[in-house]
Task: structure prediction
Amino acid sequence: MSISRKYSRTYHYSFSEGTTSDDRINHDWWSDMVKLEKIIHLEKMDGENNCMNEYGIFARSHATPTSHPWSDFLKQKFSMIQSDLKSCDIEIFGENLYAIHSIVYPKLDDHFKVFAVRHLDKWLGWDEVKWYSEMFDFHTVPEILIEKPTSEKEITEFVINNSKESSIFGSLDLNGLECTKEGIVTRNYYEFDITAFKENVFKNVRANHVATDTHWTRNWKRAPLEWETIK
Result:
């Protein structure tokens, strides 16, 4: 039994190239999105989904706190904010970029990027996500565009075209060659109920986005920050 609820599964856009047999696709994404007043496109970064709440630091599973060594850097920070997380009744979700997965970010400025905050049965709006991120001295994942969903064609073209660009932090594959960002996550700009996640969050992922093998966890490498690589 899980200690807390894990992050909801994000459905792919119907045109997402990086789907596998295990992924879920929202073929009616436009019918859902057109009902939203405002949306924000965020860069999907190549890391591990981590959650911090009053019970600990969790990876994808919330059965027990994570024991992954690449999450150790968060423990000191967590010890400082645990009581605040409990008193505010919030859970902070972010991309743990401490270990290199399939993309190297040569301009990375820190190892944890917030992309969502949950308060009880609500996913908070983006303004509140940024507010809590600043309160706890975290950065959010990069914002790409805020807009009103007025045209299925325009949204489709924008997401596909922008996904072909590099990350705001630069992006290299494991051979050191330039590559595209991992993808884009589009979400309702405002808060929504946890039961309506599918109708409020959508993602596009590049094809063949996973380049790691079964030995990855035994041979993982720490991602250097930009200031550490400047000669």
About this structure: Helices lie at 29-33, 75-88, 126-135, 152-163, 226-229. The chain has five helices and 13 strands. Residues 75-88 form the longest helix (14 residues).
